[in-house]
Amino acid sequence: MSDKDNQVDFELSSGIAAFEGKNFSRAASLLSPLAEAGDIEAQYRMAIMAQGGLGMVVNALMAYKFMKAAAEGGQPMAQHGLGFMYMEGECVEQNLPKAVEWFRRAAEQGLAGSQTTLAMLYEEGKGVEKDMEEARRWYQKAGF
Asked: Which residues contact 113 (CB under 8 A, 6 or more apart)?
């Protein structure tokens, strides 16, 4: 591992620690360059901060940009977050079929919250055809 890789790892770890310690302005300053460089963990946390106005002014465009990038990079919590954005029409226009698509991606990676949300969408017929068998399948995967 090069010195540059070690520095990036240190900055990411420090940024995540600042995020988890609720020192959001410090987290943003550490994670922003990493998010811009394509790090999905940094992108996910930057999206959360931009969406909630944590350590910065609320920025829906930035929140969507980073949440989508992290989701496309395979980060399951970002996939769930993007699904929620589409489901609620938060930071992006409401689109239930897209919400289902992103919840499914996270659910397939084992994220119980996404499995449960997907089950409820099938149970209610929101964004998908109502399908109680599919709802039961996802509830079961989520541990219900």
From this structure: 80, 106, 142
User: b or e along 79-109 (b: 16 or more beta carbons within 10 Å of the residue's beta carbon)?
Assistant: bbbbbbbbbeeebbeeeeebbbbbbbbbbee
% residues pLDDT > 90 (the chain): 93
pTM for the whole structure: 0.92
CA 9 to chain centre: 21
Q: What is the pLDDT of residues 70-128, one digit of tens each?
A: 999 999 999 999 999 999 999 999 999 999 999 999 999 999 999 999 999 999 999 99
58 torsion bin: left (phi>0), alpha (psi -120 to 50), beta (else): beta
- Rounded CA-CA distance 11/136 in Å is 43
CA torsion through residues 139, 76, 13, 30, sign: negative
CB of 80 closer than 8 Å to CB of 114: yes
Question: CA 127, 130, 133 angle in degrees (round to 5)?
Answer: 125
